[in-house]
Amino acid sequence: MQSLNEFLESAQGGEFNFGSNVHGFYDVNDPDGEITMISHNVEEFTYKCLEDVYRHYVKEESVTYRYSMLVGEWYDDDTFHTDCPDFEEPMKRLLPVRESDESEVWSDPVEVTCNYSNRITPVHFKGEIFDDGKN
Predict the structure, then answer these.
(1) 67-106 confidence digits (pLDDT tens)
(2) Where are the domains of the chain?
(3) CA 74 to CA 90: how far, in whole Å?
(4) DSSP alpha helix (H) spans, 14-134
(5) What distance in Å separates the CA atoms of residue 57 and residue 82, rounded to the nearest whole number?
(6) Could you tell me the pTM of the whole model?
């Protein structure tokens, strides 16, 4: 297992990786800035510090972070696609037309506290709860 010091040293340049599917980044010029970690290009975790990233992902400790999930994508022809059938109807109602040039649509960030393996993955969008993340 990678030690905290090894992890902090490897992340000094503002980026870090855990294998090929989990990567993170932060602004090295902002010591109080947030750290973002992306898992499999569909989950986003936002932490207060690098130590929280390490404690959560490597040590499997419970930490507080903000969670967001890729809900779907707008295609070039302005049709919306989601890989989660349960999200189709609410998204048609809440996002009937494309609202920005961004193709990816992410859920609203929700603060949760848990460890990584048993993480809570709530999906909220525009004030509506699609999934409480506890299933």
Answers:
(1) 999 999 999 999 999 999 989 999 999 999 999 999 999 9
(2) 4-71+105-131
(3) 15
(4) 50-53, 85-94
(5) 27
(6) 0.90
